[in-house]
Structures are given as structure tokens and as C-alpha cells.
Amino acid sequence: MSRSAHPAGPRHADVLPEGHYSAPPADLNALDAKVWAQTVTRDEHGVVTVGGVDVKALAEEHGTPAYVLDESDFRARARAWRTAFGADADVFYAGKAFLSRAVVRWLHEEGLNLDVCSGGELATALSAGMPADRIALHGNNKSTQEIERAIRAGVGRIVLDSFQEIVRVAHIAQSLGKRQRVQIRITVGVEAHTHEFIATAHEDQKFGIPLAGGQAAEAVRRALKLDGLELIGIHSHIGSQIFDMSGFEVAAHRVVGLLKAIRDEHGVELPEIDLGGGLGIAYTSADDPREPHEIAKALTEIVTRECEAARLRTPRISVEPGRAIVGPTAFTLYEVGTVKPLDGLRTYVSVDGGMSDNIRTALYDAEYSVALVSRTSDAAPMLARVVGKHCESGDIVVKDAFLPGDLAPGDLIAVPATGAYCRSMASNYNHVPRPPVVVVADGASRVIVRRETEEDLLRLDVG
Ligand code: LLP
Hints:
Blueprint: E1 41-42, E2 48-50, E3 53-54, H1 55-62, E4 66-70, H2 71-85, E5 89-94, H3 101-109, E6 113-116, H4 119-127, E7 135-137, H5 144-153, E8 157-160, H6 163-175, E9 180-187, E10 209-210, H7 215-225, E11 229-235, H8 246-266, E12 272-274, H9 292-309, E13 316-319, H10 323-326, E14 330-342, E15 346-351, H11 360-364, E16 371-372, E17 381-387, E18 396-404, E19 412-416, E20 437-441, E21 444-449, H12 454-460
Parallel strand pairs: 4-20, 5-6, 5-13, 6-7, 7-8, 8-9, 9-10, 9-11, 11-12, 12-13, 15-17
Antiparallel strand pairs: 1-2, 2-3, 4-14, 14-15, 14-19, 16-19, 17-18, 20-21
Helix pairs in contact: 2-9, 5-6, 7-8, 8-9
């Protein structure tokens, strides 16, 4: 979902729509550092390497398709967020973007906290040793079992999403003899400039309790009365893949307005405010994301300014970046299976994966980049569409991109910036086993999530 919106794909290669692919890049062999993980480069033979390992060796050892994740890049991004926000704020990595035990260990080591939104994510976090008090539990319909498990484990906070849940969590906490730290998630009525399915601050959607009509204030009133709950703050997440800070500014203004109303009505100054995640990354060269230190500075200034105006003590700020940490750290490595030029239209390049390992293009009209990585080429650029092997014409990985005109079966191509929401939203459509996540660091690779096998699929089929 690059910002560069564009009409439906071109009907003719000569009539290209607006967008990053409206003209071929000057050098198809160049790798734009904006969209590739930090250690990605080409070796003296023109083969792309990451973490000191070349992609041909990776394909040979681990097969394709594979998600290839650069550990040092992940750690550097996590650390950059942590450092940018400093000791007076908390960074919760949003596990939904991609979660595995290795990732949990890295986060723990780099001083980040973790946001989980299901029993499965909670189990992964706990099993990899994330201290429970550094975990936040989210979700608009947490099951009784999930709530109970989280409270028993001692999670640092549960983010309440509805009136029923306020009562439910209070009841479960009390029955366990505990007082659970909670935040209330509100919708502040901001239209985030992103795809409808990943915008979450407007009122007409399933998340949060609307600020409008006094509903959020009523939720606070109820939560403050319940012995099983310790209300520590207000939460707002306005959406995902956002570049424009103005949405956060309006959200912070409205959340602080609620904090002030709470102080005036109850004499209580809530100590925390969570502004969610959602910061955009570069999927193509057209995207210009902000650096964590710019984001931290902007958010801290907004909250401080608003609190000073409202004569409130500045609360502890927390944020929940997912995509901005893991998104750029990985690429998906595919082998080309067929190359089909359609006269006057474009060339269809079929790879050995597709919508089962990256649903984002089909679901959100997301834009991606792609490059030939097993060699360089001086051939003229061709307008290509990278498609998968699934039985569906919407099975598109990269809608429009230029690839070298001599691309052939057996070549390896890679789609960068697939670290977030690709493995975590992967499916077994057409009974295609899901690819592994291979981590590279210091000249070596290792598997952190293994490739699914047909035996794995058949094991579930107990009929
Ligand atoms: N906090 C909350 C409460 C969230 O709901 C989300 C994302 C995040 C943090 C992290 O957002 P991020 O920084 O990763 O943008 N599947 C979609 C994204 C859905 C995001 C859902 N919530 C996609 O592939 O773009």
C-alpha cells in the first residue's frame, strides 16, 4: 500500500499509469536501500547477499519460497525505537506483524515490550521468556480463557475494547483474587489516510469505544468503579501504514481531552497513554517513511504540549509499532517457474508461492517492489506482473514492476519489505505448505520457523 494510488493496471505497456513503475528505473540491478534490509547488497558475481549469505546458497539450503529475515536489521530497528522513546516511554512491538520465539527473545534482549492479541501470541511470548509484566493483551473479542490465562500469567496490561469486556475482565480478575491493570481503547474519530481495512480510528468499525457521545467517558466511569480493575490509561490506534503525523496529532489531542475530563470528573490523573502503532514503511521507492527518532520527538511534543495546555501531568507514553520494525527486515525469495509475455500487455512471471505467502496485494491492493537477485542483467526492462501458483487470477504478488527482459525459469527473484503481515497472514490455500522463515546473521543462516510439509497438512486431516 504505497501512497501512490493508481488506477487499474495498464491495458497496454505503452500506456502506463501513475506510480513508481511509470518508467523503468535507470538501473534494474540497483537495490534501493529504502526497501531492502540493511545488509542486502550484491557480491562481485552480481548475486544478492544478505547478512553475508548469498541467495543462491539460501535457496539451495532452505528451498523456495522462503522469507529471509536479517537479524541485525531487526535488532537495529527495535533498538532505534527503544532509544528514540527513551526510559520515560515504552515500546510494545505488535506481535501480529510477525511473531516467533526468536523474535520474542530479540525483543526481550533489546528492551522492548510486546503486544499480543490472541492466546496463541500470548503462548509464544511466554514460552520464549518474555516477562509477563511486559506483555499487553489486545483484541476486540478475547475469550474468557484468554483473559483468564493472561491474568494468571500476570500480564502488564489488558486493553479493554467494549463495555461487556470491562465487566468480564473485572469479574475474572476478582475471581482470581487479582486487580488487573487495564487501558481502555477508544476511537477518536480520525480518518486515517490508509486503506479502509486497516484504518481503525473512525467510529464505524469494530474496535474500541467511541469518544463521541460520551461513550468513552462512560466506560471510564464504569471501569473506575470495579475492584478487579486498575485503570492505568487510555489507548488509541488510528490505523496502519500511515505517513502523515497529523492523524496522531488529532488523536493525542482528543485522548488528552478525555484525560482532562476524567481528572475534572473523578479527580484522577491516569498515568499512561498509548498511541498505538501504524507507522508506514517503504514498500517501493515512492514511499518516504519517517525515522523512529522523528516520530518519538513529534509524539512526545504533541502529548506534552496538550497536557500542559490542559494542566495535566504528562502521562507515560507507549507506542506499538509492528510493521515499522519487522517489515523492512525481510524479503521473500522465489524461484521463477514460467515467463509468459502477453503481446501489447505485459509479461506474467509465475513464482513458486503467491497469495498464500503474501495476501496483502490481493487484500489491500498493496504495492511491492521486486528484483532479480541470483544474477545481474543488462537486458532491456520489461513490464512484468509477478503472480503465484494458486488457482485464482487475483493471485498477484507484485502488480506492476520492471524486471530484466531475459528473465528465465530458474532465476531467483525477491520481493522486499515482506517481514510484516506476510508470514503472519499466510494460508494453506490450494494445500500449499507455508514457507519457512530463515534468519541470516554474520555469514550464517538458520531456520526460525520451519517450512510446513504435506505431512503437517495431512496430520490435521483426521477424517
Ligand atoms: N496496535 C494495535 C492495537 C493494532 O491493532 C495494530 C495493528 C498495531 C498496533 C500495529 O500496527 P503496525 O505498526 O504494524 O501498522 N494486516 C494489515 C495490518 C493490520 C494491522 C492490525 N493492527 C496489513 O497487512 O497491512
